[in-house]
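Final report, Chapter 2: Outcomes

The project's central promise was a pipeline that accepts a single protein chain and returns its three-dimensional structure in a standardized token representation, suitable for archiving and comparison. That pipeline is now operational. To close this chapter, we reproduce one record exactly as it appears in the project archive, with the input sequence first and the structure output second.
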Amino acid sequence: MQQKQIGVIVGSLREGSYTRMMARALVELVPASMRLSEIGIGDLAHYNQDRETATPPPGYTEFRSKVAGSDAILFVTPEYNRSIPGVLKNALDVGSRPWGHSAWAGKPAAVISMTPGALGAMAAHHHLRQVLYALNVAALPSQEVFIPNAATLFDEKGQLTNAATREFMTTVMRSFETWIEKLAPRPGA
């Protein structure tokens, strides 16, 4: 079986963020049929339609190519002011353009939100799902993953040490694998 290439988009730019720690931990927890690769969003210029010329910014082109080349997308995001970080929204906008050529269209996705607080970034999670719906991204419906108290899950080296969370995330990744297979194009269809 050929590995599915999963693009991982981390909503925080901070190197030591809990979302980045989780994205790194998931590399060990995914089924063998999946390969995770982060698609960076930190260097993307702010989306500006005036830049959509015959030669758009190289960052736009590279980002769109990585999204389009992924079999699915995994979003791991914190919550900023009861929504998604601006840098994540910018990445969603860059990938959705030029009009009619969205790199996101039809992609299976999963959303994980997390925060040091008690609500697990639920507002950001739902805002992101709302945007994904508008972009024709099929987000995993059966498991909404809100992870609270993120500071208690990792050791000082950034390793996911909470056994219950590791087990839960392994289950989530198996569900994501099933979701991707369900949406995969069938030969001759």
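Archive annotation: The CA atoms of residues 107 and 137 lie 5 Å apart.
This record, like all others produced under the grant, will remain available to the consortium after the project formally closes.
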